[in-house]
Sequence to fold (1431 residues):
Amino acid sequence: MRRVATEVLVIGGGATGAGVVRDAAMRGFEAILVERRDLSHGTTGRYHGLLHSGGRYVVKDPEAARECIEENRVLRRIMPHCIEDTGGYFVVTPWDDLDYVPKFVDGCITAGIPVEEVPIGQMLREEPLLNPKISVCLRVPDASADSFLATEATAASAREHGSTILTYHEVTEVVRDGDRVVGARCHDLVSGEDLEIAADLVVNASGAWAGKIAGTVGLDVQVLAGKGTMVAINHRVVNTVVNRCKMPADGDIIVPIHTVAVVGTTDDRVTDPDHFAIEPWEIRLIIEEGARLVPELPAMRILRAWAGVRPLYQETSVADTRDVTRAYTLLDHSTRDGVDGMITITGGKWTSYRQMAEVTVDRVCAKLGTERACRTHVEVLPDPERHDGPRRYHRLGARLARIEADEAFGELICECELVTRSDVQRSIIESEARTLDDVRRDTRVGMGPCQGGFCAYRVAALLHELRSIPIEDANVALRDFLQERWKGELSILWGQQLRQERLDELIYLSLFDTEHLPGPRSSNLGPSMYEEFAPETTS
Amino acid sequence: MTTPTSAGSRHRTTDVLVVGAGLAGLSAARQASAAGARTRVIAKGWGAQYWLSGGIGVLGYHPLGQAQPVASPADALAALAADQPRHPYALAGVSAVAEAVSDIQHACADNGLALEGSIDRNWLLSSPLGGRRPICLAPSTMTGGDLTRRDPMLIVGLTGYPDFPAGLVAANLEAQDMAATAAEVDLVSFRQRRFLNATVLASLFDLPEIREEAARAIRPRLGSAGRVGMPAVLGMESSEEAVSHLSDLLGVEVFEIATAPPSVPGIRLHRALVRGLVGSGVRVSSGMQVVGSESNGSTIEAVYSEAAARRVRHAAGSFVIATGGILGGGLITDEDGSVTEVVADIPVKSPATRSDWFRREVLDSAGHPIYRAGIEVDSGWRPLDSGKVVWENVTVAGGLLAEAETIREHSMDGVAVATGFLAGRAAAASLVPG
Amino acid sequence: MTAPLSAQAPNPVHLPVETTLDRCIKCGICVTVCPVAAVTDRFPGPKYEGPQAARLRQPWRAGAPRADLDNGLWVRTDDHDGHLVPDHSVDYCSGCRACNMACPTGVRIAEINARARAAMVEGAEFGWRKRLRNNLLARPELLGSAGYPVGRLVNAAFENRFARALADGLLDIDRRAPLPRYQGERFAAWHRRHKPEPPTRGRVAYFTGCATAWYEARIGRAAIGVLERLGFKVVVPEQNCCGLPLLSNGEFPAARKYHRGNVEKLIGLAERGIPIVGTSTSCTLTLKEEAPELLDAFAPDENAVAAATYDICEFIAGLVDQGDLALDLLPIPLRLGYHPPCQYRAHRIGLPALDLMEMVPDLQVELSPATCCGIAGTYGYKSEKYDIAMAVGAPLFKFVKDVGGPVAICDSETCRWQITHGTDVPAVHPIEVIAAAMGLAVEDPLAGALRAAGVAEA
Fold:
């Protein structure tokens, strides 16, 4: 087994882990991050993309609300290219209680969240598809955020500061020597080799999996997995984030992000973050609740459904995960459990990931007996696509503008999401994408209406060409990706999306003979299925 | 034949109205028209021929899940008919399928498109990714790519055209023990274009000077190759001439390999068939989506198509519904598990609940049950509801029929041609009094 | 079993045409039929510009402020930063709708493109010269009425190389494009002194259209002749330009005024069940569908006028279908080429003009296989698009020349002018052919063609 040593080992390549490794690196620590799949493969890559203003928490959890607006301000500054300044509404539909409005407004003012009332006429001019029966509309500085891009940029910054990011390295066990954690053993899924990393301090930033990781050294960390299911509508039904003005509940938010609108979410406790199902009632509920905001929603095309597992830390278990605090938790296992050398950061939400990292690395400093100031809130993240000129928020039309300016119409690999050959090349060569799904997270390849139908084979061909991989590997990468896309479509396949899927079958089966191409049918880098799909609702 | 109501309206009278302009609809129209019926075709838009390979696939795999493709469709059809007695091919019978396939071959030949082969043998041609694609009748421009031959191939990609990854094609062929190498050629004439798609390329290859330029670029790369495979974009109007011209220029046989949609050979096939119909007085109109029908007892009197400001009524003596299945748009599926036929709300045989629609693996070799949903018909291709004929003057053909998994079987063209052939004949025959 | 979700939506409302992009399955059929993308790389094609680009165009949320969190303020700005329609290439869509007709799933591609152009105009992304030029071309009524009193002068100017060069240089109106000529008596003047026979049937209203009103009065005379011969009392209601040229130039507010003007002038007829019949396929399509769909104009009066509007051949063929009419047609021993314009196909009514002409004994009508003549209303007049328009029209020009008849037949005015421009073959409206077959007096160029063929004038 290969062995390496480092000062700080971060387990988990979601937003938090990437944030921690960047912060640690910027404070001069030698740091390694290990992630069992690709960056943002877990919860980070499976959320709705809301950059909270804090409005959702002002009544229920004012502390979380304050944290949100503070970080909202910071993230807009350090990663404008990952954020679209959509603005947000909180609206009162006929199903909501008007009494919540003054509480909400007071809460916003207390938390320091700018809020203004939007006349209904103006609201409908801005968002013509919203329910005209909405009686109150309040504007807050919500925004949407690309969590793939943000994590990628955070990791890129960490690399620039000298740290190492190891993807497809699954921690098989944390290594404990007496009362001390001294590192972790990993399995490299790509090469098949094992690696032992010795570390002065291990940061367990594995989110919903934190309990599993801690469990490998006998520590009892209870992280509830709160499954949140959401769907993507094929087009931007709204261009503003729209929340119901009430206590947070299922299906009460629509987030416009890139080319789609995400409607969600549900909240359902599951026992294992690796094994759960998307249930038909969730899809129906999301659509029915969404229709209270946008009455025509049921007639609109859904591209996909997916679920992320919120890491909700709790010392004692409770039944309803919605009551668990959204604020994060930092556990120092030396004080908590008498085991030194490891801390666990869990809970929280995407919007506060940087702050979580800051608090974590503050503790790292304390534990390693040094004091170094955090600078992650001032140093801007690298933007691979940055053009000269002032830094701007991401705009929906940015890719369209770029293709037009470059006259790159012939360069498109993914036509739905306007991904060019050079975008894919950069992902494969510079970001070292291993799978088509990695390329997707880097570029949005395959995320549009055809769900890879017209681009997956083009990307597979580029992977084959640029990586000079054996043809069997290219074939299996293609099959894995088709299965990965299928997984997300299964629970929403009807109507036009089913028609699309059948055209994709015509292409891959009738025309291409994909199922008989040389190589294994699937690989260990492919998707793991949800436990079940679309079991029947008998109602 | 029905008698026109008045001499003045004869040009507005239709005996057989075919709904759908895919292979099934066009085959049905050809038969109905040949039987003397005044025939019209209306369709929402163009369809499956624009996506498929421009040949006629009759049966590529049976039973599904076999590693080896079917060698002889005729033989496998008999087995299929025995295994699945409700399959459209079983209803048609092997000899009718053979007759229909031969008829479409003649129809194409009469309109300037040579399809080679017979129902006794499948061609094995390279797929656009280098897989082995079984097909019964293939355009003559493709048959040089016969994978049962051993002479080495040079697979040529065109720089700037993303839908034909020559390197991947050659590597896959090699991995299946077929001698193939790849080359990509970068033509100056193509560099001047901002985008290259199949139709742009096809019209370029209609020009002799482009073929000459391509041949100059390919010649130094030939090596020991005995034949050259190129994407199926070698001419829209004059593909056979383009391929033979390129072969002459290179001194080796040149053949086309099908591409991802839209398919140039598919367009050639579609156009040849439409040309034939128009020549025999059948009008084919697109842009007409049928959204409902008008009935009288057990007959359909007219169907209605969506149009600007109002619906348009299309009366006819007999109707062939060839609107396709889920892919073609003839069937609409919904979240509650319902599957609806769009023209006349004919009952659809489909899995009872949505949880039964799919299997877990996308590439499952048996296929997803929902795709076998469709209309059940009697021996005269009339739609059935629990064994009873729903409409006396309606026949159903093509992808709308139940029980076939046409994509995995590689039978989409053949089912369309055979059932269209028979349904069109039945529709015309039903007009005869008595 | 619970009701399908889509059935739980409220009654069908007219969603913005952009939402039809949900139907796209990316198959690319539209790309293969687009006559513009086939001849120029300036237009990346209907799939790209329609359902694809529409997902990435930022609607302009006028008046929506941005948060300035550093100062805790809302900032109001009208800066859309060029992101409303970043793809100016969409302006090269000619609006012919070949894509719509071929699309198997029903995406309203051409309409999506037209609305994108309007967003560019709204967002001031076109320069003033282009706006001025487009507005000039898009106001046939204004031009027609302003020019008519000095018609000869205008004809001379339109044919004057210097004047055309000036228009080209200053306004980018291509010097070669086929501008119309004033011909003979104005329609309104003729109609005022026209004495109809007593009617035997009900009334129909004739929607003249700008071209007939100002340049081709003969078509109006033929139309009224046919309708009166069939026994109708024909009224010519007050009306204005349908606004289509403005719609296709993205000048929506002005188009809305025109459309509202027509709706208010025609609603009385529609409410009394009087059919509104037109000879310009583009005017009738605009009243039926184009204006309502592009302008989201679905008020009850707008719907009523739309539902009462017919193309003249659609109307007559409909009567034939109902057995309500037996046309008694004289033979015309000619072989003529017929091109149904894109605007005609977009009605989605089949080819009733062809159906009627095929009833004429001895007349052999050849159906054009060409997609589009290229002119597309005002498209081919623009300097940057003239060559594209001519290339698009080339297959049609070849067809017309190959058929070789003394005249070509086409239902739409600018298409007729383009055909003549591309072939030197004069072009007539199908209703003129029907009029001749009904024994009515017709005018040149058809009259001359008939004389040459030895058909005696009625």
About this structure: The radius of gyration of chain A is 23 Å. Chain A touches chain C through 60 residues (CB under 8 Å). The first helix of chain A runs from residue 15 to 26. The longest strand of chain A covers residues 302-313.
